[in-house]
Amino acid sequence: MTDVTSAKSARRPHHWRRDLIELAALFTAVAVADAIANLIGHQPDGPYLLIASAVALTATAAFHTWWARKHSHAPPPSTAGTHDGDLSQPVDPSHPSVAAPGATATGDPALPGEDTVLWRMRTTVRDAPGSLAALCIALARHRIDILTLQTHPLAQGTVDEFLLRAPAQLQVQQLSRAISAAGGSSTWIERADTHDLVDAPTRVLGLATRTALDAAELPLALRQLLGRCTIHSLPAVSVTGRATGGTAPVEGVLEETAMRLRDPSGGTITVERPYLPFTPTEFARARALVELDARLGPRVPRSEHVLTLPEGNEITVRRADHNDLAAARAMHDRCSEQTLRLRYHGPVRDADRYLDHLLSPRFGRTLTVQTASGRMVALGHLLWDGDETEVALLVEDDWQRRGIGSELLRRLVALAIEAGCESVYAVTQASNTGMVAAMRALSLPLDYQIEEGTLVITARLDATPVRSLPPYEQAGH
User: Residue 343 in contact with residue 298, Cβ under 8 Å?
Assistant: First the structure.
């Protein structure tokens, strides 16, 4: 994408006016010298005067030569740096990126103290020398600083991914037009934040560490690795016990804006991203994370928190997994039909079928509450639902209205904030005053939607920490 400039057109232009002036000066000097020679030659001291004149002329010529050389070798105008080494292009003095002395060049980076914003940008260019240089020059003209750069080779072309710091007044439409004019295509731009300042290797290592510590982190790690996308986990067997037929091949499948990976716990993980195709590099990174999860096997952090209820009973809050399936079914047997109906919104006889799905770390995180004797009395679920996150609570009848539901909900929302979720929602009934009170006790902005007796309460997190609740003072479920 570079313009070829011939050596002939790259030479310095020939100034004929200067040559004409120099020729006229030469003839004038010869005429003056001839007149002086005739005048001095007829006097007694003529030879000495001629010698002195010759010395003066020689000294003047030497001084002129030194002065001309000193002021004709000024350094060339600086050009915008390139990443692909294409330095063969001459600089056009009339180009907007070359400023006059004393003026502010449009290619300067954002000035100190100027308001700036961060952008993530991805564009496709031809795999040719100078393609990246053209993009960098276009960014420099708008005072945009390149913070990080990643390249994703394709069969035809290359995808360049930038993290940019740009002046706040620069509109995204202006940036898009500039990139298009510089040869970029399929350009995608979105706002970034300070969390994106971490370089790619460091971010990948951090995601691998989180995945190694907790199997529930794999969907979140894939989402953070691949940017704004939707993650779906399809189990090999449905809740009703039927095969879903959603098994992916071991090597996975890459289809433009979607990829399917074999879930180590069974079934398929589908990752979708609208309008922006995945590159082979991204597919390889995602597959490496899934392979790491498969090699490590099932794992859940075993941290426990012991709390004391107002009446003096101690309870333990910890993470739950498939090992707690029998205890969860026993708790179902002790719950009333009304409690199970409020939780599962369907036939009570199907309640046990959901437990295998709910206790899987692949579909979210589950907290359980145990008494001092080890009996399970409550479950709280944080479920990944594509782009959204659901919270759900079940508290055994004899342990309701003691603040256990509020404590579980507060901890689940804190986990959602830690995972970077923008909101959480709870599906219940308008008559479930305990769940409504627990959501209101979070002191977060809430949206209510009621349809045919079903109440959906959405809490907008917006990276706002949940207010520390006085234990067991609010009404809980």
Answer: no
